[in-house]
Amino acid sequence: MQPQSPRSLHGAPVESESHNMVSQVPALPQSYAPGTDSVFSDQSGFYSLDSNVPGLSKVILNKLNMKDYGEYRTAVEGKAQGISFRNYKEMFQKMEDTFKFCTGCNKLPEHLAEGQTLKRCVKCLNVYYCTKECQKKDWPQHKKVCKLLRLVAIDRLVEWLMFTGDLPFPTEKWSKSAAGVKNWDDWLSMQGDLTPRLDAILSGADMASLWKNVSRPRPDESDLQQSLWRLQSEFLSRVLTVGMAMKHFGLDPYAKPLTIHLAGASHNETMGARITDYDELSYMFPGHQGIEIVMVGPEVVDGPIVRPPLSAFGPKHTVYINAYKSLYHQFWEELVEKEEAAKPDLVVGFHPGFHANQGLIEGWLPTLLLLRDYNIPSFFTMYSEMELKCSLQILLELEMHIRDSGANPFSSQKPEQVQACPNKMPVYYNAHYVCFHGLLPQEGVQEPRPGS
C-alpha cells in the first residue's frame, strides 16, 4: 500500500501549521518488530531479530531468557535488570546460538531428530545446515556469498572491541581541506601508516580474551587487521556522511554555528556513544564556529550523550553531542517549537527504512511532512539501490523536492548479513543516499491574474 498524497490525506496544503498536522498521523507502534529482509542488529551486531525465519525471533528470546520483543528492546536500551552472563564464553556462545538455523530448510535446533545437530559451513563459519543434503542443495546459492559471509562472521565478533574501548582507534588531523577529501582513499592518504595503531589492538588483552572465549579459531592477523579497518569505517561513515551532507547543501560551519539533527537515531548510533564520537568533524572543518549534533529517536539508549540540547549557540571549535528519546515530530513539538532546542540547519537520517512496510511509513510520515513543510535540508541513507529506489518513490509521492541521490563514497566497508536470508548478497551501512529540500516546485502552474 502506497502512502497517499499529503494533500488528499489532510485536505489542504499545510504550511505553518505542520505541528498540528503531524499529531494526526499514527506514531510508530511499540510492538513493531523488524520485517522481511531487514538488517537489524543489537549493540554489537551479534544477533538479529527477523520475522522471515519461522521461530527465529522466539529462539533468540529463549536463549536470552526473555519473554517478548518488548523485553528484548528494554535490554537493548540498557534498562533490563538481572540479564547477565556468568562469563564471556557463555555470552559469546548464546550470541552464536541465535544464528543456528538450517540455511537450507530453516529448521531450528529443537526441530531436529534425536542425535542430529546443525553443522557449520567450514569455509565461512557463518551458516548452518541440518544435513549434507541441505548443504549440497544450498551450495549453488551459498557459494556466491561464502567468502563475504566469512568476513561477516569475523566482524560480528571483533565488533565487541567497540564496547571495550579498543575501537575506534585514534585518527590524524586532516592535511587536506574538506573539499579535497572525496572518498576513503583520500581520507586514508592523510592517516599515514595505520599498522602501529592496528597492532596495538591486535596484541591487546581484549583481543586475546575474545578469541579465548569464542568457539572458533583465531583468524590470521591480516584478516583481523582488515576487520578492524572495516569496523572503523562503519564508525567514521556516520561522521563523514554528515560532513558530506553539509557540503551538499552548502552549509558553512565557518560562517555561523550549525545545528544538525539525526532523526530516527536508534541503539545503533547511541549504544555506547561518547561525547567525542563526532570530533572528526573538527578535523574536517578546523576552526569551525561550533557544531551541535542532536540524536533523536524512540530507541535512543541512555548514556552520557543524553543531555539537554542547546537553545543558544554553543562553544566555538567544538562538536557538542546530545540525544533525546522521542519520535522526531514529537521532539519538534516539545522542544523546538518552545525554543528549548535550536531549529536544525540540516536533518540526517541513517537508514530510516520507511520503505519497508506500511507501519514504518506511517511512523515516519509526520516527520517527512514536517521536513518538507518547514523547508529543512534533509539527507537520508539506505543500504541498497533497491531501498533507494523505493524511498525515492515514496518521497516523490510526498511531493518532496529531491536534489540528489546516489552511491555514498563514505559507505561503511563492513558487510552486513541479511539474517533471515544469509545467501542474499550482504549490504553496507550508508551505501546510498538521497538529499531533499522542501516542496517539489509545481511546473506549468501560473499565478491567477488579479480580477480573473
Element layout with pairings:
Layout: H1 6-10, H2 18-22, H3 56-63, H4 69-76, H5 88-97, E1 119-120, E2 128-129, H6 132-142, H7 146-158, H8 161-164, H9 184-189, H10 195-202, H11 205-213, H12 221-248, E3 258-263, H13 267-270, H14 280-284, E4 291-297, E5 319-325, H15 328-336, E6 346-350, H16 358-373, E7 378-382, H17 385-397, E8 400-407, E9 415-416, E10 427-428, E11 432-439
Parallel strand pairs: 3-4, 3-6, 4-5, 6-7
Antiparallel strand pairs: 1-2, 7-11, 8-11, 9-10
Helix pairs in contact: 5-11, 7-12, 10-12
Give a verbal description of the structure.
Keywords: Metal-binding, Zinc, Zinc-finger. Residues 1-22 are annotated as: Disordered. InterPro entries: Mito_gene_expr_regulator, Mss51-like_C, Znf_MYND. By secondary structure, the chain is α/β, with parallel strands linked by helices. It has a domain at 56-161. It contains 17 helices and eleven strands. The protein has helices at residues 6-10, 18-22, 56-63, 69-76, 88-97, 132-142, 146-158, 161-164, 184-189, 195-202, 205-213, 221-248, 267-270, 280-284, 328-336, 358-373, 385-397, and strands at 119-120, 128-129, 258-263, 291-297, 319-325, 346-350, 378-382, 400-407, 415-416, 427-428, 432-439. The strands form three sheets. The chain has a seven-stranded mixed beta sheet, with helices on both faces. The radius of gyration is 23 Å and the shape is globular. It starts with 5 loop residues before the first helix and ends in a 13-residue tail after the last strand. The model is unreliable at 1-57 (pLDDT under 50).
